[in-house]
Amino acid sequence: MPVKDDLPTPIRDNHQITEAMTDLYDRYYTSHEYEKRYPKPNQGTLHFLFENGAREAKNILDFGCGSGRYALPLLQQTNARLTGFDISHAAIAELSRFLQDNPHAERMRLFEGDAQILNGQGDYDMVMLMFGVLSHVGDHTARLATLKQLRSLMRPEGKLILSVPSIFRRRPFELFAAHWQRMTGKARDTQKEPGNILFTRNIDKQAHQFFYHLYSVAGLRAELQEAGFAITALSPESLLPEWMITQHDLLGKLDEALLPLLPAALGYGIRAVAVPA
Ligand SMILES: C[S@@+](CC[C@H](N)C(=O)[O-])C[C@H]1O[C@@H](n2cnc3c(N)ncnc32)[C@H](O)[C@@H]1O
Question: In this entry, which stretches build a coiled coil (predicted)?
Answer without folding.
Answer: none
